[in-house]
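Q: What structure does this chain adopt?
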Amino acid sequence: KHDYTARCPEGWLLASSGTCHAGEEYHGRCETEFAAIYMDAGDKTVFERRCQVCWPCLAMSPPHGPASNVSNGPLAMQSGA
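A:
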């Protein structure tokens, strides 16, 4: 899932004017500058597909709870107990 609250796609820079500017590595089908200030998640989804860009991914928590729970393994590494 993508984070459409981010103003610009990954690899694009937000200018002081509020427009997004593509980095040198962008070779998609669209212009290298656009105003995303009025775009909602649906607009960004369409732009993402049409222009071959990707908005950042949402931060996901581990499937089995917080990472701190991974210490529930064996107490003694040699015996496995």
